[in-house]
Every structure is written in structure tokens, then in C-alpha cells.
Predict the structure.
Amino acid sequence: MNKNNHKSLYWQIPFLLFLIVGSVLIIRHQRSMPYQKDSGFVFGTVYNITYQSDEDLKTDIEAELQKVDNSLSPFNKTSIITKVNNNQPIAVNDMFTEVFDLAEQVSKETNGAFDITVAPLVNAWGFGFKKGITPDKHVIDSLRSLVGYQKVSLIGNKVKKQDKRIMLDCSAIAKGYGSDIVARYLRRKGIANYMIEIGGEIVTSGINEKRTPWRIGVTKPTDDSLNLNQELQTVLNVTDKAMATSGNYRNFYYKGGKKYAHTIDPKTGYPVQHNILSATVLADNCATADAYATSFMVMGLDGAKKILAKHPELMAYLIYSDSKGHNAVWFSPSMKDKIAQ
């Protein structure tokens, strides 16, 4: 070995030692770094966020959620979507545009089973849920003329409606989108391990406090309008995925011996009568999972299977009522490795 090779080797040894020591220190710091737990109230529901960080980021997280609320909440009197619904001149922002474009895409893929213009029908039946009054056929037919994703478009940064009475409601996608927005923020901060949950819509990354993959339970669907039942149907490993669940088993009422669910079919104008009790969808982002979970509740088991066959990037765990009225389960073949129990 010549003198130059010796010099090169002598230089490399301390450099390698530096890398090894640095890696050990980083791993040690990573293991000792605490997990923060933040919770609060947003979009009319509760949020719970766990993330590994030396600092509590709750103020910044809530600022991100407020941006979503300012864009998409119909209950916020000054939000962009409220101004659109009130036909006020407003230039929409990037958040509104992103959600509108995704909603339109899912609407086309599901042949209108997902539709953000369904608000008038939801409101009519919502009143019925509270008062026990079923909207009559005349009311339903009248409102159906105001429903249809094709009747609204985004031209530049302006929303164009075919009828000024058309109302937009992004509640079936906004919670998932909110979870995505928080996930983006945490990634910008360099945080690799987190679990974000807003009203049951979840995004996960990395590992939990026990240094194991994130495991999320799917609640067994039973008539539970008071939200008291916490019995689990299954537990899923959902690390580095987004998960959303939609179900009718907590939002319903009985009248004349008939059960009315809260999910409205945009085409018929009536609550869905399909056999799916609960639809859990895994996707790369939570807004997509949220929208398809709602769509599957409208489409039923056979319709959901057709969509899943076209979209292998989606995974679903569907709980349905079989021909004998018993609860049964169907899940995507690719979901098998995600089932923890």
C-alpha cells in the first residue's frame, strides 16, 4: 500500500467514526423525544393529534385547521363556502380549489354517488330527523332540481352555479382534508411519527410511543345513536396511510317501523337503503378516503366493489347486512395484511 493510500485511509477512519457516533446520538435523541398529545374541537367534532416533537405545536396546528374552516365550513358565516352559497362575489383560495377539484373527480368516478351539492336534501332530511317529519315527494322532487355536481363549476377562481339556489356542502370530505393539512404541516416541521384524527378521519406516519405501527380500531356497527358502543369489529395497521369510516348506525331514526339513515342518495333524494352498515377506506390521503367512504355508503356493496376493482390504490373494509340480516364482512384482498385482529 503506498503512502497516498495510507493518508486516504487515515482520513476516512475518523470520518466514519464521526458518522457512527452522530447516528447513535440521533437515534438516542429520537428515542427520548417525547410524544405530544393535543385535542380540541373543530368542524363540529373532536380532534385528537399525537406526534413526536420537543415542542407543543397546538397553536400552530389550530391555525392550520382554522384555515380549512375559513375555506370550507358552512357554519362559519365568513367562510369562502358560505359566501359562495350566499352568491356573494368571492375569489376562492387554493384550499377550496383543491377540495372542489377532488370532489368533482370522485363524483365522476362514482357516477354522482358523491356530490357536494346534496346540501338541500341533507338539510330537508336533517330537519326530519330532528322533528320526525318525513319530507314529502313534492319537496324532494323540488330539491332534486338543485342537486347535481354537473350544475356547478370552477372557472378560474370563481364558482359558477347554474341556479343561484344551489348550495355546496363539503362536510363529507372536509374532515379528511383537515387531517391532510395537519399532516402536511407536521411533515414541514420534520416530524416523522404522528397520528391525526378528526371526527374519525385519520392520517398516520411512522411509529407510536411504543415504537410499533399505528393500530386503529373499526367499531362494530350496532344501532347506537348515543355513541355509547365502543366494541371493535377489527383492528387495522394503518401506518403511513390515511383512513376514513362512514356509517349509518349512529345517525338514523325510526318512523312507522322503518329505519331512515342519515346518508342521502343524491340521485333519488331519499336516505339510502343499501346493505352496507359501515365503510372504512384506506388511501394515500384522507380527503380521498373520506369521499370514497361516503360514496360506498350510497352505492352499496356491489357498487363499492366495482369502484375498488378500478382503483387498486384504494383499500376498503366493508361491514354489511347479509341476506339473513346478520352482519358480515368483505374487504379488499390487499387489506389482508393490514388486519391486526
The chain has a mean pLDDT of 86. The first strand starts at residue 35 and ends at 42.
